[in-house]
Structures are given as C-alpha cells and as structure tokens.
Amino acid sequence: MTVLTVPGITNLRDVGGMPAGTSRIREGVLFRSGNLAHVGAEAQDFLTRRIARVVDLRDDSEVSAEPCALPGLRIDHIPLFAGSVASFLLGDVSLTGLYRHIVEGGADRVVQVVRILSEGEPTLVHCTLGKDRTGVSVALALAAVGADREAIVADYAMTASQLPESRNRAIAKWLEERLPIAHDAIAVATQSPAPVMRELLAGIDDEYGSAADYLLASGLTAGELEALGSALVA
Question: Which residues are in the Tyrosine specific protein phosphatases domain (predicted)?
C-alpha cells in the first residue's frame, strides 16, 4: 500500500502492492480516503488523472453538509450505515459493534461497493474519515480476493496515524463535554485498532467460511467474484 499526500484529501492511499497468495494486489485500481469536500486545484488534478470513479459511503446528511463537486468523475453514493453517524456515537456503540452492524445490516450495500470494484476502473472509496465504512468495505473486498490477512489489517490500522492529531484532540474534547457517558465514542471517532479488524474478519470466517462466501451469501454472483479477482489481483 502507498500513502499519497495530496492537499485537501485526508487519509489517502493506494492499497495496491500488498501480497495476495503468489500474486499482489494491483496498483492504481483501488484507492481509499476521507471525504473529498475540500479538494482544491491540486487534488482535483490528481483525481482527474488517477481516478475514474468515486464511491461515497456517507449518509445523506453528511453529503448535504459537505457535498463533493468533482467534474469528470462518476460518483456512486452508497450510504453504508442504516442510520446516521451521530446515532452510533449517541448510542455508545463500540467499533466491534459498529462493524458488525455494517456487515449484518449493510450487506447489500457492501455488495454494491464490491460490484463496482469488480468492473476494474480506478476507483476511490471514501466516507468521512476513510476509517470505518471505507475500512470495512475495502477489507472485505481485499479478503475476498485472497489478500494477505495481516496486510489487510495493517492497511486498516494505518488510518489512525493518518488523521490529524489536532482534529482528534478537538473531537475527543467535544465528545467528553457532550457525551460523557458514551465511553466508546472517542474510539469510534479516532481509532483503528488492528485487533478490531482481525476480530471482524475472523468472525466472518467463522460464520460464512470466508469473506468471499459472505459476499456470495449477500448477493454477489460467482461471475462478479471472479471479475473482482481479475480487477484487483495482478
């Protein structure tokens, strides 16, 4: 995976290069990031040159508050939560609980994301931070084509180091003041611990057999799964 520094885009990287059996994940095909609402000329140039399609996993309220205007790019809006981000913070849901909610309650939307990736266009998947919704959907796509498990976990865990520390401090202060009993809220808003992703993927293996089997059980076809492998694995 390659971290990319582009002004106006937080937590941007190309996940290509990680091992996948005897092969590797193809570079220049699957990118991930935080939201694209603040891109300037340099970021727009990067997106125009490197990306053909954008998958926006934010909910309607997030998109309305921070819309993305990206001329020349196809944008697919697939809200991955059945509910708002605020509802999870207020409900004091842990990261583990949040990710299970995505996997169980948003399986059809995860499949929509993976189906787009199977088409093989250079695609950027993003949410607000590029951490949870992006992290889960990208991890499942990579796991389904046989990417190395620890490389997937490392890619997910890298997000915490890519979020601006000033932003994390401000978020933690805001949550402590307004949601003092929501003990998991700060972790949900700022952290990406490797054990959480390991636990999620292991749980999917236990319940479905593999990430590929989870996607097939959720509506992905065998042909689409094969196409996903062709798109992502070099």
Answer: 108-171
pLDDT digits (tens, 9 = 90+) for 127-161: 988 999 999 999 999 999 999 999 999 999 999 88
What residue type is 31 in one-letter code? F
Identify whether 68 is a catalytic site residue.
no
DSSP 39: -
* CATH, range 2-226: 3.90.190.10
CA 166 to chain centroid, in Å, comes to 22
Helix (H) / strand (E) element for 3: namely strand 2-3
Query: Which residue out of 127, 145, 151, 204 is catalytically annotated?
Result: 127
pTM of the model: 0.90
